[in-house]
Amino acid sequence: MLRLLFIVPALAACQATAPQPSFPEFRYTHLPRIGLDVSRIEVRQNYQAPLRAPNVDHLFPVAPANAAVRWADDRLAAMGSAGTAVFVIEDASATAERLPLTGGLRGAFTREQADRVTVSLRARLDVETAGGLARGSAAAFATRSQTLAEDITLNERDRAHYLLTEQAMGDLNAQLEANIRQHLLSFLR
Fold this sequence. Notes:
It is built from four helices and six strands. By secondary structure, the protein is α/β, with parallel strands linked by helices.
């Protein structure tokens, strides 16, 4: 009986871990396609994640580079009979910077921001007609940062990373769309 008294509280103290949320891939099919007077669109991924600190993009539920590829697949449409468009992802990094924390007794009773995570996206769209008679380019850059509390859970961290990527991609989408309309007007269909 005495042993049972120790086991029951110990079992009650155990908590099931929170289920890991699943995050959908970013999709841009709800936005109108950008028709280009080319017969082919290539997506070139020039950014390679280093897979080590300070970079953390490989730890994101949806890597910023994957979101940028999905943008090109969903938004750009080849509607011509000749020519090529190349969507180049130059940067799709996410970095984490450790922030200083208050030490001592005061720090033990203070909930602080421990990390600053920054997502940086840079992409360009190069268009060339058959034979290279006409060329054009449009580029965009977006960056978003957010601080994360020292006591954040893994699920909360994943959610923050996902939302940060979503916001940065929203900025990149707006800039690309505006710059394509401004600099590649003669290639639009």
